[in-house]
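in:
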């Protein structure tokens, strides 16, 4: 680890939850905890929790929240000319002050390659995902002729579920003109993310975007082009590995999913969530820190907080 702290100390002081009695109970997502600070401002805390298969792991990853929050801020800045975003300020590596938006309950997933969930669907014999046709004759990690939009419903609990664009409109989940704006912006965001990644020797494989409305204006929220919301391959050697049928070198959470599958867990009923060994938790941190460095061009500098609730209280009560 690139840190002046002992690994054991970093593991011991992961930020897994926050408690600020002055502000009441936050909304607790899989990774983020959200406090309502004013009528139109939110305090978003990015914890060190990590999830896969819609389950939060029992052990957290050191400094993951700091990496995610700063990576998101970097990537929001890269796309701010395409669509407004919710960031007002980033006063601490784990904290974002954001506009309070009305969320649109759809995860907008763009896929450029036959990887992950798309590959598992394809391997099962299906040739359609969320209403989008999947070409014949492809192999794992092949690039699609054009990126695909494969939306999912945003579940409060349990699994997000695939949904087609036709069903989104049929069910009235999003008004048609707004949806057309969302899909057009999503493809532009993916093109920009692809360009930024390529300039850093990476391939943006797939990603998800979340949107909200702020004073009626479409606004990008949550996170963008981070390790949790996106999958990356190393650009160097991609073609050679595909030609030889070798696994692609990834920087994403897919390796966590693979580790869980190797330990008989895919989030199915009756399966027992395994513990993450300390050595594996440190390996996950190293991967997150590596992507941060590759994507931003800056070395990640961890900040150990032993009394984060106190730090957080000072930040939020000044708003």
């Amino acid at each position: 680890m690139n840190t002046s702290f002992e690994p054991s100390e970093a593991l011991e002081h992961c930020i897994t939850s926050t408690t600020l009695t002055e502000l009441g109970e936050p909304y607790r997502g899989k990774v983020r905890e959200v406090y309502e600070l004013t009528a139109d401002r939110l305090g978003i805390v990015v914890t060190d929790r990590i999830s896969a298969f819609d389950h939060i792991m029992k052990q957290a990853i050191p400094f993951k929240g700091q990496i995610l929050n700063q990576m998101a801020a970097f990537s929001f800045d890269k796309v701010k000319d395409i669509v407004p975003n919710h960031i007002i300020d980033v006063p601490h590596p784990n904290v974002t002050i954001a506009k309070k938006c009305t969320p649109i309950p759809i995860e907008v997933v763009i896929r450029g390659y036959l990887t992950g969930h798309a590959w598992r669907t394809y391997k099962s014999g299906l040739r359609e995902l969320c209403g989008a046709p999947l070409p014949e004759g492809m192999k794992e990690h092949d690039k699609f002729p054009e990126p695909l939009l494969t939306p999912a419903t945003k579940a409060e609990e349990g699994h997000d579920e695939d949904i087609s664009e036709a069903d989104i409109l049929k069910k009235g989940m999003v008004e048609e003109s707004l949806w057309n704006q969302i899909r057009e912006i999503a493809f532009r965001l993916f093109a920009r993310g692809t360009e930024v990644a390529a300039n850093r020797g990476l391939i943006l494989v797939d990603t998800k975007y979340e949107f909200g409305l702020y004073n009626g204006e479409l606004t990008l929220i949550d996170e963008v082009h981070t390790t949790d919301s996106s999958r990356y391959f190393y650009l160097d050697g991609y073609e050679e590995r595909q030609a030889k049928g070798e696994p692609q070198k990834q920087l994403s959470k897919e390796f966590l999913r693979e580790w869980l599958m190797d330990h008989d867990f895919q989030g199915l009923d009756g399966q027992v969530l395994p513990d993450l060994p300390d050595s594996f938790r440190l390996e996950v941190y190293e991967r997150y820190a590596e992507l941060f460095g590759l994507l931003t061009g800056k070395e990640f500098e961890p900040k150990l907080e032993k009394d984060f609730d106190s730090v957080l209280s000072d930040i939020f009560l000044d708003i």
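note: The radius of gyration is 19 Å.
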